[in-house]
Amino acid sequence: MNAIIVSDLHLGSRYFCYQEFERFLKSIPQDYELILNGDIIDNPKAQLAPPHQSILHLIKRFSFRQRVVWVQGNHDKGFVTNGFGKVNFKSVYSIGNRLLIIHGYDFDEIMPRNQGFVKAFRLMHNLRVKLGARPVHVAEYAKKWKLLYNVLRKNVMTNAVNCALENGFQTVVCGHTHYPEDRVYNGVRYINTGAWTEFPAFYLKVNGSTMSLKSIDTPLDTHS
């Protein structure tokens, strides 16, 4: 089976690379399944700007041509899915017994237990931007706090790998951390597809029995 997996588009966010994603979406070959691994929407209660709304329409039209799976993330909660083409909405998805696809928020034991710190961090970040700092997504700013950010990444990875081991999967794919990586941990391959709020964005290409994490400046080559 062939598939393209992306995560964390955050439609509605000023940082979503919508032009790059539109070109990317139109380049996916018809024999590839598209898997959207969570946090596709930034805020389901907010009105989308026309360019971001057009991306949703493209995904809907895409689903009539080839299979689309939307694995819901924490930001997607509350998004109305009725009448959304032929998109398959899932809480978790798998390809055979070798690839488990889950957004990753449920593996995060750091942020849900420290909401006071998270809110204060966001306020500080927003204040920096208002004072003239370069506007970036809060996740990109958080990466400057390397020690804390690495704790979050490892927590998500460890719990994701444990889940894969418990359920007999060889590989687990997550998003959530906004940090693209591909590594082996405790004998399980852990892949994170990063986010489309920073450039370059990443995607996972599944071609038969091979999987490779690529940046969007790498052309889709269906022969490799």
TrEMBL record:
A Gene Ontology cellular component where this protein is annotated is: membrane
- Which InterPro entries does this chain map to? Calcineurin-like_PHP, LpxH-like, Metallo-depent_PP-like
Which Pfam families did the record assign? Metallophos
**Which SUPFAM superfamilies does this chain map to?**
Metallo-dependent phosphatases (SSF56300)
What Gene3D superfamilies does this protein map onto?
Answer: 3.60.21.10
Question: Is the keyword Transmembrane in the record?
Answer: no
Q: Name one GO molecular function term.
A: metal ion binding
Provide the Calcineurin-like phosphoesterase domain boundaries. 2-180
Q: Which UniProt keywords apply?
A: Cell inner membrane, Cell membrane, Manganese, Membrane, Metal-binding
One GO term under biological process is:
lipid A biosynthetic process
- Keyword Manganese part of the UniProt annotation: yes
Q: Check the record and name the PANTHER family matching this protein.
A: UDP-2,3-DIACYLGLUCOSAMINE HYDROLASE-RELATED (PTHR34990)
Record-given protein name: UDP-2,3-diacylglucosamine diphosphatase
Native organism is Candidatus Desulfatibia vada
